[in-house]
Amino acid sequence: MPTQLTLIGGYLGAGKTSLVNRMLRAAHKPFAVIVNDLGALPIDEALIETRSAAMVTLTNGCACCQIGADLSLQVDRMASRGFDWLVVETSGVARLSRLMVQLMQLPGIQVNSAMAVVDGLRIEQLLENRWVSEIVEDQLNAAQLIVATRAFPDWRFTGSLWHQRTKFLEAEGALPDWIWQTEKAQVVPSPKGSNKADFQHRAVTVNPSMDASDLERFIVSNPQIQRVKGFASLSGQRYLIQSGLGYCRIELSEAVGIDGVQFIWTGSKAPAFEQITSPPE
Q1: Does domain 3-179 have CATH number 3.30.1490.110?
Q2: Chain segment 161-187, per-residue pLDDT in tens
Q3: pTM for the complete prediction?
């Protein structure tokens, strides 16, 4: 019997990691998760049985590992550990249709579901952005189920057929049954277009003598930045940093771990990271 695989895609900051974490807490059977950033997955410490640099094993039998250079090899390794269901959380700038084609070719693997998570408050803005709309449309077209977050129960796409595959997900409470329901996926061709975003990324350790307001000012003053996510110790306190198109949140955090902030931006001009990584003059 083939190993079942669910793909969870969606643009940067849509809420993919939050959904994966809720699925892990509510797991009704053991499954393995392959995530884009293991360090950013806010797993409840009470669920963790063992932890290593490459793998987190949970007390409910689930396991999490980080996407490596060869996703196909990693999927095969997790399947060989005896899991009959795998969940892959993709990068926010990944083309869901391409990943589906890649994974469908793996022997013993059946891609049975593809979800696209969307931020209901930002999705229309993303679809109008000439640099990222092609990627977002690919994710929406390839997904059998579109999961809307940060919206309201009767929210719908404006003037599109995507709303027929869209369901609203409450921010709290038990996960609805449709999150767990799967069916064999079909590949939808990616729309053709000429405006392709050139994404760059870099992880930095923020200078600890900075204030949270200084870091927020740096982020919002660089419009090419698409996504920021990570932890930083600033002026003696630890913060969780999350930023995307149209929002920037820097909040106190009690999480224990290594500091590091991942930046993703478009275009060839990188933000002046020396402003936040070197001691201020």
Answers
A1: no
A2: 788 888 899 888 888 888 887 565 555
A3: 0.69
